Amino acid sequence: MQIDIQTRDITLTEELRAHVERRLQFALSRFQDQGLLITVCLSGVSGGSGEDRHCYLQIRAEGCPDVSIEDTEADLYIAINRAVERAGRMLERQWQCAHNHLNGPFQ
Fold first, then answer.
1. What is the distance between the alpha carbons of residues 11 and 94, in angstroms, rounded to a whole number?
2. Tens digit of pLDDT for each residue in 54-80?
């Protein structure tokens, strides 16, 4: 699993980096053998209710279409958690579809 974390208008602290990596490892550990390439973009977003935090994930895995997920929350850690959870579920669905397609419906 290769993780690239990029930021815009946010300081990438060691605590924040560790949180992102820990959440990704936990949610995507099942797919580690799939050669995952993960790009995480964290940024601040000005909106009507003040400054929100944005998390964008792009995951590339062998044998599956790319997964792109984004979430915006007031708390960056919540945005990261929600985006990672959704990405894990989407990757699981794609893996199941690809696996079922290869094996056929009755095997």
1. 33
2. 999 999 987 778 889 999 999 999 999
Q: How many domains does the chain have?
A: 1
Segments forming the whole domain that contains residue 77? 2-103
CATH code (residue 52): 3.30.160.100
SS (H, E, C) the chain: CEEEEEEECCCCCHHHHHHHHHHHHHHHHHHHHHCCEEEEEEEEEEECCEEEEEEEEEEECCCCCCEEEEEEECCHHHHHHHHHHHHHHHHHHHHHHHHHHHHCCCC
